[in-house]
Amino acid sequence: MVSTRGSRASTRAEPPEEPATKPPRARATARRASTAAAPAPALSPPASPQARAPAKRTRGKAGTSAAAATIDEDVTPIKHKADTIRLDQAVADAAATPLPPDGDDASPALPSKRARTSLSSPTTPATGGKAVAGGRVKAAARSKAGAAARGDGSGPRRGGLPGLLLLLLTASATGGGGYLYLQRHPEAGELLQQRASAAAARARLELYTTTTALGERADALRARGRDAAARAAGAAAAIQAAAADKFDAHVAPRVGGLLERARSLTGAGAGSAPAAAAPAWDAGEIAALLPAGAAWEELAADIAERLGGAAAGTGRKGVGLLLGCAHPSDCAAAAEALASLSGVPEGCALRLDGGALAEEGGGAGALQSALASFLRRCPAGLTVVGNADQLPLESLPALQSALSELGGFQHGGSVDASRGVYALLLPLPDAGDARAAAGGEPSEAQAWLKRLYFEGILGAEAASESDLARAENVLKPMLRALQRRIDFAAPLRLGADAEAAAAAGEGEGGEDWADAASDEVDEQ
């Protein structure tokens, strides 16, 4: 006991020894050794957010901070490996993701959220802000994953031949089902057929209606154009006729008087012999051609006086005669009698035929050429036109020019037609009307003959014209102008054949000439 206490006391009495330096922690040293011995990865991955984050400051001792840094360095290779595994998994998921079929409006499939996270924020050790070589590998992997997600052909695609086959199978199944349905329900097929027929009929009706409306509109436009043209031509013809009438009434007498005076003065001043006197027209010879009666004898005297003035050049206008014959034999006899009248100069009788002029097709040119050559040779000659109702319409303007005041025309030079006589022989349609007109008043007979001739021409032309407005607005004013230039109209005395025809057809057909004469046509 004493010794124990002594030893204790000795122990206590001994001076304290110097404390030894605390050796480093073997665990940390071992870990550092293992870390230093571990081989570095061939390609370092990019730094992770955890590695880039600054080290957490601890308020503890310096040893604690050093230990935490040592643990972080030991864990970094493990995190690299985990990031690599997640990246590979994301690439595999993107390659295995199916794409929508062609033409689908849906957006292409994207990798999962985990894969997007691993692609967008890989873990990289802290390298002091420098890129790690392993980042190139992962960037290539990311581009490969994006190409797979965009469908560059590396992944499976829908559609193509399988889609086409599926579509054909669906169409075949639908058609077969419809056929079976129609076989079991024939009334449905009939209903479909009726609806199709009704739709086709409506389409045809609409097409016909549209075509008809377009055609009617086109016809209306053409008609309006023709009417406008006809109105313009009618207005021009009316203006021309009015101007010709004013010229005949006011200008022509003065000019004609001056020309006649100049002609007489020229002949007297030159000391030449006076011109040969024109043959005198015999009123008795003319009365022999007209119906019997005092009224017709007075008319014959007026005709003879007018013919004498025209031959002498004092009238300044040629004389127009319209003579109606009830039988072709009367027309031929009248032509011979007119040519043998005493007032016609020797060899100055020209006989023309309206039918022959129409067959020649010369129109105005043929008549004007014949008149020009004849009037140059015989200024005061007699022109007899048989079958005047067959004269071509184109020849009437030339006749109108010859019968105008100071009449004439240009045909290889100026041609004076103001001294000639122009007799138109008109075959009458009914001998009974001709005999009735011969027994009436000359004025009524004259109105009837003019109406019969000019309205007959106009009616025949209007029937052959496709545009009635042209006949009314263009031809009618021209015919009225020519009608005013006919000085005398009378029926010829009936011959034996005409009397026989009138007696045979008494009370049959024909136009009542008195009623026609009451419808006054000529304008004074």
CATH hierarchy, class of the domain at 281-518? Alpha Beta
CA radius of gyration is 65 Å
What is the CATH architecture descriptor of the domain at 281-518? 3-Layer(aba) Sandwich
Can you give the mean pLDDT?
Answer: 71
SS summary, helix count: 19
From the 3D structure, determine the CATH topology of the domain at 281-518.
Answer: Rossmann fold
What portion of residues is helical?
55-70%
Spans of at least 5 consecutive residues whose pLDDT stays below 50 are 1-16, 26-38, 40-44, 55-61, 102-133, 152-156, 267-276, 520-524
Which sequence of SSEs, written as H and E, runs from N to C? HHHHHHHHHHEHEHHEHEEEHHHEHH
* Strand order of the biggest β-sheet: 2-3-6-1-7
| Biggest sheet character | 5 strands, parallel
How much beta, percentage-wise? Answer: 5-15%
**Shape by Cα distribution:** elongated
Distance between the termini: 191 Å
Number of strands: 7
Structural class: alpha/beta
Biased composition (Low complexity): 31-41, 126-135
Biased composition (Acidic residues): 508-524
Region (Disordered): 1-74, 95-135, 499-524
Descriptive keywords:
524 residues; alpha/beta; Rossmann fold; two-stranded antiparallel sheet; 19 helices; elongated; disordered N terminus; disordered C terminus
Word description of this protein:
It is a single chain. The protein has 524 residues and is α/β, with parallel strands linked by helices. Among the domains are: 34-150, no CATH class; 281-518, Rossmann fold (3-Layer(aba) Sandwich), CATH 3.40.50. The chain has 19 helices and seven strands. The strands form two sheets. The protein has a five-stranded parallel beta sheet with strand order 2-3-6-1-7. Strands 4-5 form a two-stranded antiparallel sheet. Helix 7 crosses helix 8, helix 8 packs parallel to helix 17 (468-484) and helix 14 (396-402) runs parallel beside helix 17 (468-484). Mean pLDDT is 71; it is low at 1-16, 26-38, 40-44, 55-61, 102-133, 152-156, 267-276 and 520-524.
